[in-house]
Write a structure and sequence with these properties.
Layout: H1 3-16, H2 33-47, E1 55-58, E2 63-65, H3 82-91, E3 98-102, E4 111-115, H4 117-128, E5 136-140, H5 145-156, H6 164-178, H7 183-190, H8 194-204, H9 208-213, H10 222-232, H11 237-257, H12 265-276, E6 291-294, E7 300-306, E8 312-316, H13 324-338
Parallel strand pairs: 2-4, 3-5
Antiparallel strand pairs: 1-5, 3-4, 6-7, 7-8
Helix pairs in contact: 3-4, 6-8, 8-10, 10-12, 11-12
């Protein structure tokens, strides 16, 4: 007799076995344990205690980001998603599904991602760059825009990998789109303190020059806006802060272009606050930045760091994908620039 047949007979025996205790008059006999367990499980599902979900594995290329997603998808990189990429490589699968909703207004896509931008980016990266056979795990839901916003906020509110500024911009748009511009109404709906929400709304109101003066929006915090708020409230402080920020912003942009770290937020904050107080010396000329020299194919070859008035320290990128001829040609160009009269 096969194992399967034996199991079936065992189950059947449990269903038709004689009852040893005679039930009282009018009292139904209890169902067998297996049937009882199944009935209890079904009862919990129908009562709402348990909700069965359908998950799907799809091609991430068929999913687009929701336009109101609270994460800057364009800022995601392999370095930024390193922890998630490592996990996906190890398991060759996605542990937690992204939340999506179905769309029918664009033939190029089937879903839009409400929660799970990092998961979408990472799976897409592994498929396109590393050519791994991995799919995007999703959970489809029916959501209004306001419900989608609340869901994304709850999932991401405690996460450290979403910057304060990203969250602030999300809140600013949401309060106007869903709550009639009333912060109190939005705070009640999200079950958060109105004072906490107001701090993020103030951050979103920072002038663009001030935002760019920090160099990296991922480092811009709500406490930075809180400290600058009194100076931006009226003149002459506001004009002074804006003047200092307009000078600092292009310097920070140049640092990024040269591959150099931007000034730390604390330093930027000190410069802007000192400028607001009328201390002109606070916006001093920055030290000469290290120059990164690249080949004609944009491969980093070496850097030149000034050391005093007549010295430069050269640091070679020995692992660069370039020939020695590329190094020599680039060095000769820089040498001619640094010593034009020789």
């Amino acid at each position: 007799m096969s194992t399967t047949t034996g199991k079936n007979r065992s189950i059947l025996a449990g269903l038709v076995a004689p009852v040893t205790d005679t039930p009282k008059t009018g009292e139904a006999a209890p169902p067998p344990a297996r049937v009882s367990d199944r009935m209890s499980a079904l009862a919990r599902v129908t009562s709402g205690d348990i909700k069965e979900k359908t998950l799907r594995l799809v091609d991430p290329a068929r999913c687009r980001m929701w336009t109101r997603h609270n994460r800057r998808y364009d800022l995601l990189t392999a370095e930024y998603c390193a922890d998630l990429l490592e996990s996906l490589r190890a398991q060759n699968s996605q542990e937690f599904p992204a939340v999506v909703r179905r769309i029918d207004d664009d033939p190029a896509f089937d879903y839009e991602v409400i929660c799970g931008a990092r998961r979408h980016w990472s799976v897409s990266y592994l498929r396109s760059v590393e050519h791994r056979d991995i799919k995007f795990l999703i959970e489809e839901r029916e959501l209004t825009d306001e419900a989608a916003f609340r869901l994304a906020d709850v999932e991401n509110r405690s996460r450290q990998d979403i910057s304060d500024y990203e969250r602030a911009l999300d809140y600013r748009e949401a309060v106007e789109s869903y709550y009639g511009g009333v912060a109190r109404r939005m705070a009640e709906r999200l079950e958060i303190r109105e004072t906490w929400l107001s701090r993020f709304l103030d951050l979103a109101k920072l002038p663009q020059d001030v935002v760019e003066a920090f160099g990296d929006v991922l480092q811009l915090r709500e406490n930075h806006a809180r400290e600058l708020k009194p100076y931006l409230a009226s003149d002459p402080g506001r004009t002074r802060v804006m003047t200092a920020a307009s000078k600092l912003a292009p310097q920070q942009a140049q640092r990024r272009l040269d591959g150099q770290p931007v000034l730390e937020p604390a330093k930027v904050l000190a410069i802007l606050k000192a400028a607001a107080a009328g201390e002109a010396a606070a916006v001093a000329k920055p030290a000469v930045a290290t120059k990164v020299v690249k080949s004609d194919k944009a491969v980093r070859l070496f850097s030149l760091k000034p050391k005093g008035a007549n010295r430069v320290v050269l640091e070679l990128a020995l692992d660069a994908s370039a020939s020695n001829a590329d190094f020599i040609a680039a060095f000769e160009r820089e040498l001619a620039r640094l010593r034009p009269a020789t």
